[in-house]
Fold:
Amino acid sequence: MEQELIEDLDSSLSMLQELSKRHKAFREQNIQLNSLVAAMESDQKKASRLLNDFEKMQKDRERMREKITELLDRLERLRI
Structure:
């Protein structure tokens, strides 16, 4: 009877140790995943800012094109 109890306790202890190892590995993976998510969110914000900057530059370029065309038209009229 005592031997069975000891064996059961040993078995339970082994299972608990295995669960503890799995839990530790899971926690470490969770930390790594959280770090990756944070890095991805940061990259996404940077990409969004770059896209906004690019769109502003395109608008500025178009305005400059219009302004240059306007100035060239004025210059042409002055020559006539």
Q: What stands out?
A: The helical segments are 2-79.
